[in-house]
């Protein structure tokens, strides 16, 4: 992915060198699939878990998302949490848990009333979307129009 064209300005070269040093996760954020779709999934997960009693904190959320097959670095997750807090969907509270290893993790996020509204809208949208897209038969049979798939 490295470009070595001679016609680049020095600032472009600086930016290029900088991006070469960024983490794999940050590079993945530039993947259109990640940016356009997965990012949204992660935010939905965060809202969902922020609604739970214990709330969410960074390392726990990274662990949780890894169970779903998503590998995020702290450098990817923390800005998402910060942005969601700026939107007013989640709110940082001080952790009383001794599990939190770093000072960053002292920040536990809980859902706000505005976030709960967003989550409710998302749940309706997800149910609607899943109803149509989520149950696509493994082998579509075009000749069997009108035949309902199982479930
Ligand atoms: Zn989850």
How would you sum up the global shape? globular
Number of strands: 2
What is the CATH topology of the domain at 21-97 and 105-132?
Arc Repressor Mutant, subunit A
Bound molecules: zinc ion
What structural class do helix, strand and pairing data support? mainly alpha
Radius of gyration computed on alpha carbons: 20 Å
With helices defined by DSSP (H or I, 4 residues minimum), what is the helix count? 6
User: What's the architecture of the domain at 21-97 and 105-132 in CATH terms?
Assistant: Orthogonal Bundle
Low-confidence stretches: 1-23
For the terminal residues, how far apart are their CA atoms? 45 Å
CATH class of the domain at 21-97 and 105-132: Mainly Alpha
Biggest sheet descriptor: 2 strands, antiparallel
State the strand order across the main sheet.
Answer: 1-2
Percent of residues in helices: 40-55%
